[in-house]
Fold this protein.
Amino acid sequence: MTRPDTATLAVYPGSFDPIHLGHVDIIHRAAHIFPRVVVGILENASKDALFTPLERREMIRELFADEPQVEVRCFSGLLVNFLKELDATIIIRGMRAVSDFEYEFQMALMNRRLYPQAETVFLTPKEEYTYLSSRLVKEVVALGGDVTGLVPDAVRHHLEARYRKATHPPTR
Ligand code: PNS
């Protein structure tokens, strides 16, 4: 099998709705291994999304503004097509616990089936982030809980503002 010499670039795809410190940790680990990391935000039409793909992109760009090796882009459709567009073959995924394994394994094999050059590299976050998920973070903030130390401060402010707006819609 011939492989393009593109291992200088790794793609970290996800929903990132919103990014949390487990994701940030994985991006730093990936940037330690690969000279260039592209964070790929899936632009799905999910009605459950709290932030638009562009809002998510801006939040992540701001977090990594001082780290030029980290780029943030949105993509739609198949991940493998996004990889091909970038001439990339490496997919980064975070593996938090055994419960992630089955879904991640299926995705890695499907992506390889669709694009044999694709190679998924699994990275594990710091233990303190292994229970973190965007879904839980949103639930905690929606119910008035504090997510300090679980998401970057700027993201926490966006979350709190979004839920404040939802609970207190502007009056005319
Ligand atoms: O953060 P998530 O929601 O676990 O990320 C999932 C993501 C975006 C990596 C996955 O849903 C994806 O790659 N979607 C793009 C569509 C696609 O390529 N599907 C087939 C891959 S198995």
